[in-house]
């Protein structure tokens, strides 16, 4: 994905975040940019499959996103930087064919729309979760 596409996507995400809603035009743009990964991400969000786990008192957070396989695995991710799923390492890191995986997109979409299931834990508990990544 080229830098112009990234700029377009960031602009759309900012607009969604500012209104906490998504228009048909914005959905079309994001679908064009992210294709099947975006379709899959919207299904995850529709199923309330995105948790934002926040540490207190720091407010630091990580997303826990439900997978779509029969096992319903959950993956820890940071929407803009990392996901623990296989697709992130294969399609994003190794092959460079995608900008992000469906779990990252689901986390970004849910956060932008205010559709995350919010879970509060102590900073110590959050640190223990992150140490297992």
Automatic annotation (TrEMBL):
Residue span(s) of domain SWIM-type: 63-112
Keywords: Metal-binding, Zinc, Zinc-finger
Keyword rRNA-binding part of the UniProt annotation: no
Biological process terms in GO annotation: double-strand break repair via homologous recombination
Record-linked PROSITE patterns: ZF_SWIM (PS50966)
Cited InterPro entries: Znf_SWIM
A GO term for molecular function: zinc ion binding
Cellular component per GO, a single term: Shu complex
Keyword Magnesium among record annotations: no
The protein's name: SWIM-type domain-containing protein
Organism field: Rhododendron simsii
